[in-house]
Task: inverse folding
């Protein structure tokens, strides 16, 4: 079992980096979801304002 | 089948194929007679190279379409492919280096294949630095597309380097005398399963990142529209 350490190191690093990349994608997704909620809140506020005064533009997006 | 269902299906396929690949590498395939157990790194090193090169090929194709059509979709695809390609290219270099230490007696040597691969890594590193450090403008996207296309020209040079120049890097898949260097059919089967596992993993990660970038693009457009509507509402008061 000579060189077992090298084999273990190679496979461990590969799976660790792939795991970190998946985590990175996951965190980006969480940030995107938060941004989406902010946008939805801004849209809702804008639509409320336009409902209160019909002269204002609506954002039916 | 919608995008989300395809992504889930790819995720489960990746998991199943990766488990099969690990079983074959550690329990099924015999190690090569001369190199011993260190040769088992080869079964992940080659698929990592394949998915890295496929990613960079997609960056180049997406770059051509972006320059031609100017559609943001192609820029998002190119960016996602460059990012996933860089992850796999880095892992390919690291795995190769770990294999080289017990077999060649050194972590790194300026061999033609290693050097051309390092140049490829540097060029796509430059691409990602450009994209990360600058605003997402059409001009930056055009620079990125050109850089992505130019960098991809190095891929065939990397592949051909073992035949073009004198090198110590083994030519296993297509040897200098033709044919492949995998003498046992179990080695071929293991390599094919590992290639399938990494192709599924790559497709899954690429789809995830691409759909994220598409969402970000749509949200930026939406944000602009809301800002515009807000400005119009303020003006009308």
Result:
């Amino acid at each position: 079992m000579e060189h077992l350490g090298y084999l273990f190191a190679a496979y461990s690093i590969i799976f660790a980096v792939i795991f970190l990349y998946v985590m990175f994608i996951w965190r980006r997704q969480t940030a995107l979801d938060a941004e989406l909620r902010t946008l939805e809140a801004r849209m809702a506020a804008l639509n409320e304002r336009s409902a209160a005064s019909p002269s204002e533009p609506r954002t039916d997006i | 089948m919608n995008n989300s269902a395809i992504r889930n299906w790819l995720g489960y396929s990746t998991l199943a194929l990766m488990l099969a690949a690990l079983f074959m590498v550690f329990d099924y395939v015999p190690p090569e007679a001369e190199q011993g157990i260190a040769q088992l790194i080869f079964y992940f090193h080659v698929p990592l190279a394949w998915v890295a090169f496929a990613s960079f090929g997609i960056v180049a194709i997406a770059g051509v379409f972006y320059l031609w059509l100017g559609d943001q979709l192609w820029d998002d695809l190119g960016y996602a492919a460059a990012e996933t390609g860089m992850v796999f290219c880095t892992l390919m270099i690291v795995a190769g280096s770990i294999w080289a230490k017990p077999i060649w007696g050194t972590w790194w040597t300026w061999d033609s294949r290693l050097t051309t691969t390092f140049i490829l890594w540097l060029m796509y590193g430059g691409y990602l630095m450009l994209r990360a450090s600058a605003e997402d403008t059409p001009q930056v996207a055009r620079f990125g597309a050109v850089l992505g296309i130019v960098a991809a020209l190095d891929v065939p040079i990397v592949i051909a380097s073992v035949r073009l120049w004198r090198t110590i890097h083994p030519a296993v898949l297509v040897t200098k005398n033709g044919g492949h260097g995998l003498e046992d059919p179990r080695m071929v089967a293991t390599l094919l399963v590992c290639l399938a596992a990494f192709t599924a993993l790559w497709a899954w990660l690429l789809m995830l990142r691409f759909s994220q970038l598409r969402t970000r693009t749509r949200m930026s457009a939406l944000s602009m529209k809301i800002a515009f509507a807000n400005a119009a509402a303020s003006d009308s008061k």
User: Anything to note?
Assistant: Residues 21 and 29 of chain A are 12 Å apart (CA to CA). The first helix of chain A runs from residue 4 to 52. Chain A has a mean pLDDT of 84.
